[in-house]
Here is the input.
Amino acid sequence: MAYQKCMNCGREFGADEIIYFCSKCGDLLEIKYYPDEIARKLRASNWEKAPLSVWRYRDFMPIDDFSKIVTLNEGGTGFHLCQRLGKLLGINQLYIKNEGENPTGSFKDRGMTVGVTKAVELGAKSVICASTGNTSASLAAYAAKAGFDCAVLIPSGKIAYGKLAQAMIHGARVIKVRGNFDQALNFVLELSEKHKTIYLLNSINPFRIEGQKSLGFEICDQLNREPLDRLVVPVGNAGNISAIWKGFTEYHEFGLVKSLPRMTGIQAAGADPIVQAIKNGSDTVMPVVKPDTIATAIRIGAPVSWKKALIAIRESVGTAESVSDKEILDAQKMLAQIEGIFVEPASASSIAGLKKLVENGEVDSDERVICVTTGHGLKDPNIAIKMGEKPIEVEAQMEAIEIALGFKTERAVAVLEGSL
Ligand code: F0G
Here is the structure.
């Protein structure tokens, strides 16, 4: 049996209690387990033979009734050795863990399969989240599968088109808030306090973090449990970096890996409160009041899980770095054109951040590094079209096509036709 525990005052709550913050001190909650119980379950199950997926790790998950699992086949995403990109960046062993290969195209599906399954166990009928886009797309899909009513609050005009399309087609009630993500999140927190019938599935919900920790487990398994030096991941609301760290540390506690990687968080320069806190050695995070970046997924000024993220980075002796919009877009193009992996701008920030850290001498070329790319490039087609080389439009004639492809020059054709 799992339980919930306040990360500040240590107060404990049952796993079936619907609560998002500690009722005593207001801090974040974490899911805790009885290690002997997990060890017993692991010994009895054949989990290491199961295919890679979130549910391979079911013995580490806070779900009692596996018959209730709501799944769209999440996890088991690609783990790509990127030799060409590595050479360009000056890293000998560089891997991309491509979370865009999840069912709705982002890592959020790992959290939602567990979070929505928990909602079924708890008897919820309706679910809600605030989102910069991917969480809303994922929740809408899993709510559809579970037969729940779903509402999502998004910042008006600041979410990528593909994500909006997903939330709409899966039948969520989409509310565009004339404000930013941080404001939308405050509204859903208040709503879920006020209307107890609606279950909140932002990453403040510790059950979602449990699903996302499978990303850490999976990386260890894809590396055959060999040591990893550094993990680089984009940071927005700071749930994912905290979740991955939880995965790594649990595997370590069970003796499944011998060492832990340095957690390296990357934020966009216009929305980088965690980076500022790490650089200033501060124990708190000063919110960015007007966050702004082209990477709309991480356009967040007041990350709710900041405390967990600071712990992950500091405990692992990691670091944090911010990158400009230009650096993000250059990295997006580089990854697409050198490795064939198309990711959305927020995801490319991990590559941009690694590039900067190597250039600054903070990352060594001998390190074994994994960059997590968090969402698929098709989520945000407008950016790709704006940044890419423009298509050439021609008449439906072979000659025009040959000229466009450089097989013939316009001048040569004109000479042949006698018009020159
Ligand atoms: N990358 C992508 C593509 C995201 O969508 C997000 C977060 C992040 C990185 C950052 O992850 O918040 O756990 O630090 N998107 C959320 C959303 C906020 O609403 O879809 P984080």
Q: What stands out?
A: The chain has a mean pLDDT of 97. The first strand starts at residue 3 and ends at 6. The two ends are 85 Å apart (CA to CA). The pocket of F0G is lined by residues 106, 108, 131-135, 203, 234-240, 297-298, 344, 346-347, 374-375 (CB under 6 Å).
